Amino acid sequence: MKKYAVDICRDIDINGDRQNIRIRAAREGLPPILFIHGGPGVCDRHIVLAKQSALAEKYTMVCWDQRGSGKSYSPGIKKQELTVDTYVEDARELVSQICRMLGADKVVIAGHSWGTVIGLQLVSRYPEKTAAYIGQGQFIDGWKNEEESYRFCVRERITYKLRTLFSFC
Hints:
Blueprint: E1 6-14, E2 17-25, E3 32-36, H1 45-51, E4 60-65, H2 84-102, E5 107-112, H3 114-125, E6 130-136, H4 142-165
Parallel strand pairs: 3-4, 3-5, 5-6
Antiparallel strand pairs: 1-2, 2-4
């Protein structure tokens, strides 16, 4: 297993809520990149840290379990009214804390799926703390996406049935 000069897993207070982050880097002083996971509720730090570990050579990787997700989950989440703004403001506060902790002026924001909803609003509202934005599985139009996903599944099911039906040919 690779050793990292920076390898921290900690709970921090973000807007009155206990949330967990994992920080990893090959050496101190590398520029930070914040991974904002999909979901909501589907944290993927284990995948990011395993499959994108080479980034730790050039960046300080920060994986964040958002409010109510993964290591940031608490039963009290069921009583909270959660909005996109809640998550964007949590991300804003986290970026400020990352900058203070790591002595950085800006952070690269990497959003995946639902994380792109948070990430795009974050960087458009607070560009002064953004070094760059990376969107993976960029969320554009939720209803259109679901409709197209449904059509894809129906087409694939029909194709599968036809292959099975005519497999004797």
